[in-house]
Amino acid sequence: MNEILDLNNILAIVLAYLIGSIPSAIWVSKWFFGIDVRDHGSQNAGATNTFRVIGKKAGFPVLFFDILKGWASVTFLSQLSTYASGSNQHINLQLAIGLAAVFGHVFPIYERFKGGKGVATLLGIVLAINFPAAGVCFLIFLLTYIVSQYVSLGAITAAFLFPFVTVFVFKATSPTLIYFSIVISILVIFTHRANIVRLLKKEESKMPLNIKKGKS
């Protein structure tokens, strides 16, 4: 991974962190609705809690922007390098950029390092790096959510299956892509560890498909 230490690559990674740090859920809730979404619901600064607390009018813009943060960071910032598209060096850089964007979302410098769980931003990264696998995992998430009405369970299930989809469905042979899928899987599951505990205790809150403004 020594090639990552090139000055342009370092600049790309730093910019990715700063872009990922843009706390859309917090700023939208504060600027347009006069509340801090972290003070309500699950107290998480992400799209799911925004849907739960405020509703669709804030949830969809936050979701879209959080996905865009990951996708745009990987797609455009990786162009700062001279690596050939699809090469191991290029994929390594994309992975580093993507992880920096997610780190920014979870620990945003603009909001005292208290952010969201990074699932939507991770989806944007996967869409940029491995679009077919992202599509399948999104369908897995959607099906799990529709059946259970647990957003967290959908995210955890899709993340757990992502490496298997990458390797066994799409026959990935690049070690970098395989490692990437494993890292993404572990990261999503790790950020949902509290949700896993609540699911096991049957204390996790459901979010019905007819999303309305939730109670704080």
Count of DSSP-assigned helices: 10
SSE string? HHHHHHHHHH
Q: How would you sum up the major sheet?
A: none
Distance between the termini: 46 Å
The SS-based structural class is mainly alpha
Tell me roughly what share of residues is in helical segments.
55-70%
Extract low-pLDDT stretches. none
Radius of gyration: 17 Å
How large is the share of residues in beta strands? under 5%
Strand element count: 0
Cα shape: globular
Overall average residue pLDDT: 89
Tally of separate domains: 2
Please, could you describe this protein's structure?
The protein is mainly alpha-helical and 216 residues long. It folds into two domains: 1-129, no CATH class; 131-209. 67% of the residues lie in helices and 0% in strands. The chain has helices spanning 7-20, 24-33, 47-53, 56-77, 88-106, 119-129, 131-148, 151-169, 175-191, 193-200. The mean pLDDT is 89.
Helices, strands, pairings?
Layout: H1 7-20, H2 24-33, H3 47-53, H4 56-77, H5 88-106, H6 119-129, H7 131-148, H8 151-169, H9 175-191, H10 193-200
Helix pairs in contact: 1-4, 1-5, 2-4, 3-4, 4-5, 4-6, 5-6, 6-7, 7-8, 8-9
Question: Could you provide a short overview of the structure?
Answer:
Helices cover about 65% and strands about 0% of the residues. It folds into 2 domains: about 1-130, no CATH class; about 130-210. The protein has helices at about 5-20, 25-35, 45-55, 55-75, 90-105, 120-130, 130-150, 150-170, 175-190, 195-200.
